[in-house]
Structures are given as C-alpha cells and as structure tokens.
Design a protein that fits this description.
The complex is a heterotrimer of chains A (198), B (646) and C (338).
Chain A: E1 2-6, E2 11-12, H1 21-49, H2 66-88, H3 92-119, H4 128-159, H5 169-194
Chain B: E1 7-8, E2 11-14, H1 20-29, H2 34-40, H3 44-73, H4 83-118, H5 126-148, H6 173-201, H7 214-246, H8 259-276, H9 279-293, H10 300-314, H11 329-341, H12 343-359, H13 366-389, H14 391-397, H15 401-431, H16 437-463, H17 480-510, E3 565-567, E4 574-578, E5 585-590, H18 597-614, H19 617-635
Antiparallel strand pairs in B: 2-3, 4-5
Helix pairs in contact in B: 3-4, 3-5, 3-17, 4-5, 4-6, 4-15, 5-6, 5-18, 6-7, 6-18, 7-8, 7-9, 7-10, 8-10, 9-12, 9-13, 9-15, 10-12, 12-13, 13-15, 13-16, 15-16, 16-17, 18-19
Chain C: H1 3-17, H2 37-66, H3 87-115, E1 124-131, E2 134-140, E3 148-151, E4 153-157, E5 162-168, E6 173-175, E7 184-186, E8 192-196, E9 202-207, E10 220-226, H4 228-239, H5 248-260, E11 288-289, E12 294-295, H6 298-311, H7 324-334
Parallel strand pairs in C: 1-5, 4-10
Antiparallel strand pairs in C: 1-2, 2-3, 5-8, 6-7, 9-10, 11-12
Classes of the chains: A mainly alpha (198), B mainly alpha (646), C alpha+beta (338).
Chain lengths: 198, 646, 338
C-alpha cells in the first residue's frame, strides 16, 4: 500500500448520534410497526362500517381509565425527552432519573390498562368488537412491554457508565421507539374512544 | 486498553489485493473456518450464496409438486391423487414458489452483490443479515414438516376464509401455514430493513443516488414495499390463528366478522409482494443487458423512476384480485383503472431494454439469451394481466386457467428467466469459473420452448372455461388434449431446469477459470477478483459515474472513478458511511465479526412458533425469554464497534 | 369410477348437453345473452390488442438482435461513445402504450356500465344457496303459492333477464355460467346479486369458480333456457304434489327413504323434511345427479346411493347406508318422483 494522503475531513468513528446505522434501522422498524397498527385500525373501521346493529355493540367505551392512560404515556414521552437531553449535556444522572420516571409511568399505564381490560363487560371471544378491542390494545400493550424492557436495559447500561455526551446512540434509538408507542396509543385511543362519539 | 477513538481523519491509500494492507484486511475480515465459522458467519457473500442455494432447492421441490399435479391433470378423471392430496400439493406449490423461492433467490443475489455494487465492505447490519437467512430456513422447514404429517396447508396460497377457519379445516394444516408465514415475515422484514439502511448509508463516496445500478433500485423498492406490505399478511394470519385457537371472530360472519376482511388484508400485502419478487429481477436484466449490448442502459432515469412508481402504484391495485366479490361498481372501476395505469412504467422498462439491444451490439451469450427471452415473456405476461385489469373481462377470466397462465408468465418470465441469466452472468464472480456456454444455450432453448409449450395453452384452457384448483375434470368439456400438451411442455421445461442445475455442478468443478472481468462489465463488482476477497475492496472505491469501469471509453467528461485509491479503513472491520443522496463520507462504521447470536435468536424464534403450534405455552414462554435475552446480548454495546467510550 | 363407467357417463352427458359449443361447453369466446355479450366483445378486443402487442414486441426484439451493425474493432470496444441516445424508443413506445391504455379504460368503463343492470326488470328471482358441493335453489314469486325449492338444475325462460340472489351455507363459492355471463362470488354473511339472460334455448353448463374444499372440482351447475311454454310446464311440474307411492315396491322404498334419507333430504308431500342436502321432490325432472357429476339414470342413481364416496370422495353424502333389496326399493321409489 502506498499512503497517498490523510483525509482533510475528520470523520466520527462508530455509533455516534444519527450516524449510527441503528438509528436508521429503528426508523424503518417504526415504519413497519406503524403500518401494522394502521392495518389493525383499518380492520376495526372496516368491520365497524359493515356492522349490523349498534356500534359499539356494548355502548360507548368509558373514558375514565382511557384518559389517564393517555396522560401517563404522554408524560412518559416528556420524561424520556428530558432524560435524553440530560445525556446530551453529559449528565448521566439526569438520564437515569428520566428513565426511571418513564419506567414508572409506563408500568402505571400497563396497570391501568389491565384494570380497563378486567372491567369490560365482554371478554375476548364475545364477538367481533371484543376480538378487535383486546387484540389491538393487546398489540399495543406488548409493544409497551418491550419498551419497558428497553428502558430497563438502558438504565442498566447508563449505570455501567456506557454513555456520555458524545456516545449514547442506544439512548436516542430507545427514545425514538418510546415516542412511537405513545403516538400509536394516541391513534388507538382516538379509534376506540373518540371516533364512535363523532 | 486505549480509549476508543471518537474521530479520525482516515488514510487515503493506493493498494491492491497483493498489498501488505490487504493482508491485514484479510486477517480482520476472515472468520474462523469449519463448522464454527459456518454457523457464526456474518459475511454477506456467504449469506448470499446460502440464500441462492436454499432458494433453488425450494424451486426444485416446488417443481416436483407441480410435476405430480400435471401428471394428475394430463387426462380427464385420473386417480393418481386424492382431492385432499391435490389440494395440499397446489397449495404448497404456490407457497414454495412465491415465498420460499421467489423472494429469497433475489435476496441471495442482492445480499452477495450489493456491497460489491455499492463499493462497500459489508451490508449495514451483518448480524441481522445472518438472522434473516436462518429464520427463512427455519420457516421453510416449519412449513414442510407439515407434509410429513400429512397435514400440509390445503386452501391455496391465498387461504381464503371461511374454508381456512377451524369449522371447515380442523387439522393443523392451516395453523402451520399461519404461524410459518408470520415467522417468515420476520425474515423478510429484517432483510428489507438491512437493504434500506445499506442503501441510505453504505455507498462508496461519489456514488450519488442517480449512479446506483438498477438492481439496487429494484431491491430497494421491493424492500420499502415489503416494509409496508408484510404487516398486512402477518396480521391477517395472526387474526386467523386467533380465530382458530381461541374463538375470536375476525372472519366469522355469524358474529359480525367479515370474510372479505381476509381478502383485503391478504391482497393489500399480496399485490405489492408480486412486485417485490419481480422488480429486483428486472434490475438484474437492466444491469446485465448493457454488458452484453456493449452500451449503457437506455434511459437510466426513466427506468429507475419506473421501478419506484410501479411499486407505489402497486399499493393501489389490490382489489383487482376481488373483482367478482360483489363490491360496488365505482370502487372496482377505480382499481381497474389503476391496474391499467400500472402498465405504463412497465412499458418504459420494456422499451428501454429493446432500445438498449437495438442501439447496442449484442453478444449472444447464454445470459443474454435469458435476458432477451425475458423481455418477450414479460410482455406476454403483462398483456394477459392487462386483459384481466378490465373488470368485465375479469369476471370471466378470474379463477380460470387464464390466470394460471398469466401468473406463470409473469413469475417464470420475470423472475426465473432473469435469475437463471443472472447466474450465468455472475457465476464467474461468485466462483471464479465460467459456466458452460454450449450447454447454456441448449438450456435456454429447452427452457424457453418447454415453458411456452407448457404454459401458453393455459390461456386457451382458461378461455375454454377450465377453473383453477380442480383436481380433475370430466370428459366432454374439451380440456383433455390441451392439458396433455401442458403436461408435456412443463416436463420439457423441467428438463431445461435440470440441464441448468447440471451445468452449475459441472462448471463448479471444471468450468473455465474466469478473470476479474470476463464479460468486460462496467460496475464495481467486476473490479474485484473472482471470487472477491473476503474484504471486498482493498481500498474503498470512489465513484464518478454510473459505469465506473467504462469511463475511459465513454466520453462523459474528465471525472474518473477509482478502485485503486481511496480510504483504506484497515483498523479492524470497517467501512465508510455516507450521506444518503450525494454519498459524501460521513462516518467510519465499525462492522461486527462472527457471532452465534443470530443463529441462537433464529432457533429461539423457531421454537417459539413450534410452541404456539403445539399449544405448548411453557415452551413458548421459555422461547420468548431466550429470544429477549439473546436480543439483549446481541445489542450489548461493544467497544470494538465503537459503541461505548470505556 | 371405472374407465368404462366414466365413458358411459360422459357419453350420456355429452348427449344431454346439446349446446352449440358441445365440444367446449364451458367456453366463453361466444356468449348467448346481454349479460355476457359486452364482456365477450371487450374480451375479444383486448385479446386482439394483446396479441398484436406481443407480436410487435417479438418483431422488435428479433430486429434488435439481428439488424445490421458495424463490426467491433476489438472486444473492448463499446457500441456507443456516450451514455445517452435511444430515448426516442421510450417516448414513442410509452406514448403509444398510454394512448391505447386510456382508450381501453374508457371502453372498459362503458362495458361495466352496460352490464351493471339488466335491460329490463327481471320477471323472475332465483335465490341460490351454495353449499359444499351443490346448489340449492329457491324460486320466489309474487304469488307465494308459486314459490318452490329445487337443486342443481336451474331453468329460466329464454329471452328474459333473471335475477339471482346468491348466498352461502358454508364457505366462499362462485356462481358462474360462462356462456351467459361473468362470475359472482358467494360470500358467507352477505347476499350478492347478479343477473343472467339466455337468448337461445338450450342447456348451459356452469361450475363453482372459487376453491371451496375437497370436491370443488365436482360442483357443476346446469342451467336450461326453456321456451316460455316449456318453462311454465317445468314450474308446474315442480309445484305439483308428489305422486303418492303406488306400488308396494315404491312404498317399501319410501319407508327406506324415511328411515335413512329423510334426515338430510326433503320430498314435499311426504314426511321427509331434511334440509342438509338437496331437495329431491322432483328428482326425475333433472338431467344430472350430484351437481352435474352423473347423468340421471337408475344405474347411476343406485351407484350414487350405494357408494357416493368413490364417485365424489369427501361429499357430505354418506355411503353404504343402503344396499341390496333396500337399495332397489328406494331407487324404485325415487323413480316415481316426476
């Protein structure tokens, strides 16, 4: 080899901010998972549009748990945004606190959603509405569960000192996913709880 | 331990495969040998070859299934097969060809070639690449185990409800299909993600978006399409599985469910899918034909745009599979018009290919014959599709052998012929030897004649009213003689495929040795040795045009690509990351080396689905836990990948 | 079924069919009524365009490969000195294609509009219930006393539109009589509506056109277009009370029927009221058995009852229920159902 030159531009090495391949990979994951939810909601609207008789068949779904659920997830997105800002400024403690808060809010969401499930007057196989309700909210809950696992692992990695102001792409990628599940919830919430009232 | 470097001004060097630096690269990129290496490799070239070989195995199995069916149909009222056996055969033939052959074979080409075409040392996600192969293999095995139990899926590859519901199909046949498809969907999705991010980020400096080969456009478009289409079918199969196991009512008309919901979800996936399995193959021709016509492709930009617009339009035509279902006339007419409009970008490509041949100077190799033959078969398949796009005509043609003719012209014509031509073209690059040209030409004619004799009469059978998916037919309907011709023609075609396989094996052992660029091709893969070194490029190429190796001979200005001078990137496994549109260097990417994580995760996922099939919830739960742990281990930040500081 | 039996059956079936295109009774390159004719015209038009396009492309391809060109100086010489050139092919080719496509789109829309409803109000509505693997038929009428049920063989008056309301008892099927018109799928949970009109008297063959299970291949349909007098006579036959079984043999057969068959089949005017299988009230007025599989002869009837599973494996009709003297008796009884 003959060394001809050293490049005039200095390039970052490895996983750094939006240069990490994983960042782009997460965007594509979000695209495909969002599409999955789009098809789920399409199925709901398709079946609703062909329904004979009253829709929703068990009356308007109550907002008493759904609205707190929404608030919890939106708050959880705020806390993760704040957490990421912390590590961007080189403050891993802020990151850990933010993750812990988001974890708690996410767990509270799952608990409330569990209460909603238990309190419904129908169960999974009652009819097509119930099949849709539990499957769609169930898919979302599964995504939240994965999100909580992601947060827990990020918490561990922060505690191990892996992240600093320059290098925390795993955090950015995890935050992307976390915001995504909040947005999905907004769509699910709108479909089940708002749309029938319009 | 030194600190992990955060920034570097990379060295630009002149080097070849013989340079000292290349020995260093070889040591970094070469994994262990033996079984360990085989199970843990993340080398895109190895994975590409595996995809090709596995896909061809499935092609042969699918072909055997068809051969048995054709024996049953050669005469009226035959009794070779029971109706149930026939139903399982036609279903698995479709599943095998469309899912286990057609996309994976193109993934094979793309996996092997993309980094070489783009001037990169690997794909964006080498481990994910390995995972997508393992999951594909396991899902194929999963589907086929059902045959050994006598319970293969038996409601056709599109699996309409209610016949696929538990009430009418109580065995595990459909459960195997549903779960196998969701598992396969994981492979397809992660494969698509890999291609998209590789295209956006891992091109050689200077390879702006308007300089990438058309195969890249084809596979990229197919991958974006799959990202948006696969969830529809995974969801449909999941909902069907729920209906069958737990008694939900998605498709249960008696409880407000909608049988047509299945068809909408299935075809919202199915139609984009058929473009995903032909657009990369069209790209193979768009890149291969110029080499054998001694000129660049006519109309690169229109063809690239036609590729993208075909896939985009492909999302708006799915109802043309449902014209007879009783939908309102306004709705079906919209889809009918869209199905005609989608012909336009295809015609751009066809005229580009003809113009390239006409204004070029054809070299009549076997590969060229397959590419030229493909153009005619493409058009015949296209016009039969155009006929079915007209709703009133489709109400007669749909679900008859006319459609069987159409789909085989488009699938064999637009996928198999380019694939076979592509193997003749790139075999020297993959193996260092040329395939036998004399046998190749015989193969082409046997395949071409056999295919047309076997499948053209199906148009007539369809017009004579022969429905699809019938295990037998009575005398007196006028279908006997043509069915016999179809059977004989299809066997001749099969002999052609056999000749091709023989050629591959013989050429592997005794083919004439090929140099770097036996065809005098223009793209970057022909600048490497045959086969390429494990690190692909001694230095990262810089690219100045669409046809880097032809620049001296095309008077296009003074900019020159270089494969001998560029970034060295020899500190471990490294390649360059660039911006998406203009391919300016952006980051030095550290690439992972051999690991068992993809295999482990693939096995865990397969076990998960086995647990679901057998209703063994503890097995499923254990597999979920192992999958999550394997994923966490996989993603654990590594210093070697410069993911963490300390 | 054995080879010789198959030959006999198909000879009878061919003899029975009597359509103009007896050699290909399911073909639709000619159709015989206003529901089919516009489809056939458009089909021929698009077909001819398709053949012409394919031929033109074949000629262009061959020309491209074989036309005269200057020789290459050496192997490395390219055919052109620059990347461009040849775009005219794309402009002209795609331009012509677009114009042809738009024309065909217009023609298609006009054709769709012309078949979306019948030329006049249908005088007759038939409710078709498709099951695995036979067709139940209910002829409705403004006069409720002229409503009746039959199976597998449809009669229509020639030259008049008939409305068909198709519904499913189980899975998706498709209602299709190719020489009269396009298909209409039969989908559980909804009733689809279509119409047909036969302008020529005769026998038209149909077949289920959506895979519906094991014996999808054997779910045929016979549609007979009668002159108005013949149609009225057929309707009267269907409405007439079933003759009381006269001979001792027939009465014995009726007892066998009641014991083994009445659970699935109806014979109006008797105690047999099963609705799982086809209505057999006037079985002897039909030309075929088992949804077009067999010609309606006593031999075939006995064979079907004795061993349906070897003729149509998987059919819901159980086999070996009746044999020997009982079989002869029940066939004698069924022969009285004119």
């Amino acid at each position: 080899m003959v060394e001809v030159a050293v490049s005039r531009t200095t390039l970052p090495v490895g996983s750094e901010a939006h240069h990490a391949s994983g960042w782009w990979g997460m965007l594509t994951v979000i695209a495909t998972e969002a599409t999955l939810f789009a098809y789920l909601l399409f199925s709901y609207f398709y079946i609703a549009s062909h329904a004979q008789g009253a829709w929703p068949p068990h009356g308007m779904p109550k907002l008493s748990l759904a609205i707190p659920c929404t608030i919890l997830l939106v708050a959880g997105s705020y806390t993760m945004w704040w957490a990421e800002r912390g590590i961007e400024r080189g403050k891993p403690v802020q990151l850990m606190i933010g993750i812990a808060l988001s974890l708690a809010l996410g767990l509270a969401f799952m608990a409330l959603e569990g209460m909603e499930w238990a309190g419904e007057p129908f169960h999974l196989t009652t009819g097509v509405y119930s099949s849709l309700f539990f499957t769609i909210t169930g898919f979302h809950l599964a995504h939240v569960a994965v999100g909580l696992l992601v947060l827990a692992v990020l918490f561990l990695w922060t505690a191990l000192g892996y992240f600093d102001a320059n290098r925390h792409s795993a955090v950015s990628i995890g935050v992307l996913y976390w915001h995504f599940i909040t947005i999905v919830w907004l769509a699910v919430f709108f479909t089940f709880y708002i749309a029938p009232r319009l | 331990m030194s600190d992990v470097e955060t920034f570097r001004a990379p060295i630009i060097a002149r080097a070849t495969d013989q340079s000292q630096s290349s020995h260093i690269l070889k040591r970094s990129w070469e994994g262990p040998g033996g079984i360990a290496g085989w199970l843990s490799t993340v080398d895109h070239k190895e994975i590409g070859k595996r995809y090709l070989i596995t896909a061809f195995l499935f092609l042969i199995i699918g072909g055997l299934e068809a051969a048995i069916m054709r024996a049953q149909l050669a005469q009226p009222n035959e009794h070779l097969l029971t109706p149930e056996q026939y139903a399982q055969l036609f279903t698995m033939h479709g599943v095998t060809m469309i899912f286990l052959y057609a996309l994976p074979v193109l993934s094979g080409f793309s996996n092997y070639l993309w980094p070489l075409l783009l001037g990169s040392r690997d794909m964006a996600f080498p481990r994910l690449n390995a995972l997508s192969y393992w999951v594909f293999l396991f899902s194929g095995i999963f589907l086929y185990v059902s045959f050994s139990l006598g319970s293969a899926p038996d409601d056709g590859w599109f699996n309409y409800v209610p016949y696929s519901a538990r009430a009418f199909n109580p065995g595990i046949n459909i459960d195997v299909y549903a779960l196998g498809m969701v598992l396969l969907g994981i492979s397809t999705t992660v494969g698509a993600i890999n291609f998209i991010v590789t295209l956006l980020r891992l091109r050689a400096p200077g390879m702006s978006i308007n300089r990438v080969p058309i195969l890249i456009w084809g596979t990229l478009t197919a991958s974006v399409g799959n990202l948006f289409a696969v969830p529809a079918v995974s969801l449909a199969f999941f909902m069907l599985w729920m209906d069958r196991q737990f008694g939900t009512h998605f498709f249960d008309a008696s409880a407000g469910g909608q049988p047509l919901l299945w068809q909408h979800l299935f075809w919202m996936f199915g139609h984009p899918w058929v473009y995903a399995i032909v657009l990369p193959a069209m790209g193979i021709v768009s890149d291969g034909l110029p080499t054998f016509c001694r000129r660049p492709l006519v109309g690169y930009t229109p063809v690239a745009l036609a590729t993208v617009s075909t896939m985009a339009l492909g999302f708006g035509v799915w109802v043309h599979h449902m014209f007879a279902t009783g939908l309102p006339i306004m709705a079906v007419s919209y889809f009918s018009a869209a199905s005609m409009i989608i012909v336009i970008p295809s015609s751009v490509a066809v005229f580009s290919w003809i113009a390239t041949i006409w204004t070029g100077r054809p070299v009549f190799t076997s590969a060229f014959l397959f590419f030229a033959g493909f153009v005619l078969l493409f058009v015949i398949g296209g016009v039969s599709g155009f006929m079915t796009a007209a709703v009133p005509v489709d109400l007669q043609l749909t679900q008859t052998y006319f459609i069987v003719a159409h789909l085989h012209y488009v699938l064999i014509g637009i996928n198999v012929f380019p694939v076979v031509g592509g193997i003749f073209y790139w075999f020297p690059k993959f193996t260092g030897r040329l395939m036998n040209e004399t046998l190749g030409k015989w193969t082409f004619w046997v395949m071409f004649i056999g295919f047309n004799v076997g499948f053209f009469p199906m148009h007539i059978l369809g017009l004579a009213g022969m429905p699809r998916r019938i295990y037998t037919y009575a005398e007196g309907l006028g279908w006997g003689p043509l069915n016999l011709i179809v059977t004989l023609g299809s066997y001749l075609f099969a002999i052609g495929v056999l000749l091709f396989v023989v050629n591959v094996f013989v050429s592997l052992k005794r083919g004439q040795r090929a140099g770097d660029n036996p065809w005098d091709g223009a793209s970057l893969e022909w600048s490497t040795s045959s086969p390429p070194p494990v690190y692909n490029f001694a230095v990262i190429p810089t690219v100045a045009s669409r046809y880097p190796l032809w620049e001296g001979r095309l008077n296009q200005g003074d900019d020159r690509s270089s494969t001998q001078q560029g970034f060295l990137l020899d500190k471990g496994r490294e390649t360059i990351g660039t911006t998406s549109l203009d391919a300016e260097p952006d980051v030095i990417l550290k690439m992972p080396s051999n690991t068992y994580a993809p295999l482990l995760l693939g096995v865990a996922l397969a076990v998960l689905f086995i647990g679901a099939l057998l209703h063994s919830w503890w097995l499923l739960g254990a597999a979920v836990v192992v999958s999550l742990l394997a994923s966490i281990a996989w993603l654990w930040p590594e210093r070697a990948l410069s993911q963490i500081e300390t | 079924m054995s080879r010789s039996r198959a030959l006999v059956v198909s000879a009878l079936l061919i003899g029975q069919s009597g359509t103009t295109y007896a050699e290909t009774p399911m073909s639709y390159w000619h159709t015989y009524g206003p529901a089919g004719y516009p489809l056939t015209q458009l089909g021929w038009g698009l077909g001819i365009i398709s053949i012409v396009v394919s031929a033109v492309i074949a000629v262009l391809l061959l020309g491209a490969m074989s036309h005269e060109r200057s020789r290459a100086a050496d192997d490395t010489q390219l055919a052109v000195g620059r990347e461009g050139g040849g775009m005219g092919w794309i402009y002209i080719g795609t331009g012509i294609t677009t114009v042809v496509l738009i024309g065909c789109m217009g023609w298609t829309l006009l054709t769709s509009a012309s078949v979306v409803r019948p030329p006049s109000t249908p005088a007759l509505t038939v409710q078709v219930t498709a099951s695995q693997w036979w067709w139940g038929l209910m002829y409705t009428s403004a006069d409720p006393s002229r409503t009746f049920i039959t199976a597998n063989e449809i009669h229509v008056p020639v030259g008049q539109p008939v409305r068909f309301e198709v519904a499913s008892a189980d899975v998706i099927h498709s209602f299709w009589v190719p020489q009269l018109g396009g298909k209409m799928d039969v989908i559980p949970g909804q009733t689809n509506v279509t119409w047909l009109q036969a302008d020529k008297p005769g026998v038209y063959r149909g077949q289920c056109a959506e895979f519906c299970g094991t014996e999808h291949a054997r779910m045929a349909l016979v549609l007979i277009a009668d002159t108005p007098e013949d149609f009225r006579a057929w309707q009267d036959d269907q409405l007439r009370d079933t003759p009381i079984a006269a001979s001792a043999q027939a009465r014995a057969g009726q007892r066998v029927f009641q014991a083994h068959c009445a659970v699935c089949h109806t014979i109006r005017g008797s105690d047999a009221a099963g609705i799982v299988g086809p209505d057999l009230s006037h079985l002897m007025t039909r030309r075929t058995l088992a949804a077009g599989l067999l010609a309606n002869t006593p031999g075939n009837l006995a064979g079907w009852i004795a061993d349906s599973q070897s003729l149509k494996p998987g059919a819901s009709m159980p086999d070996h229920l009746v044999s020997g003297a009982d079989l002869t008796a029940v066939v004698d009884y069924l022969k009285t159902l004119q």
